[in-house]
Amino acid sequence: MKAAVTRVAAVAVLSAAFASAAFAQDRRDVRLAREVGRAVRDYAHFTIFDDVSGRVEGGIVTLEGKVTMPYKKSELERRVGRIDGVQELKSQIQVLPVSQFDEELRIRVARAIYGNPSFWNYAAMTDPPIHIIVEHGRVTLTGVVNSEVDKAMARSLATGLGELSVKSELRTDAEVKSN
Predict the structure, then answer these.
(1) Considering only the top CATH level, what class is 100-178?
(2) How far apart are CA 124 and CA 119, in angstroms?
(3) Would you say residue 11 has pLDDT above 70?
């Protein structure tokens, strides 16, 4: 009986140690995720026409998204790779094809959305939250808005420019907080 109690106590101590280690790793991952987010947001060439997100698990950072120029991909990878605590960087960032038509469409969609009085509060932000990704004439809206009404209106404004393929991946603040 005494040996069983000792084993149970040893298992409990080991479980607590693993739980502590897991909790410490989770805290490091959360800190690292904040720093990765800051590194992407603070990148001077990151615009509303780029969309990059990341996740962190056990010190391994995975970047995903699309950017308009190859140098942005390289510089973002370099910036994130230099962050203390990054054990490995997996980049799945894609570079959008260079196209005059896509570039003009990006600008037209941005003007339609951010030029609308309902979106002036977003346009005035340092880092406007609605990102406009255009690839081969197809528009994808990403980012976070305040309400379902803003989601629907942004999509409607983009679609109103003509026969466009517009996909909305916009999320509301409430949807982000619930995840």
Answers:
(1) alpha beta
(2) 9
(3) no
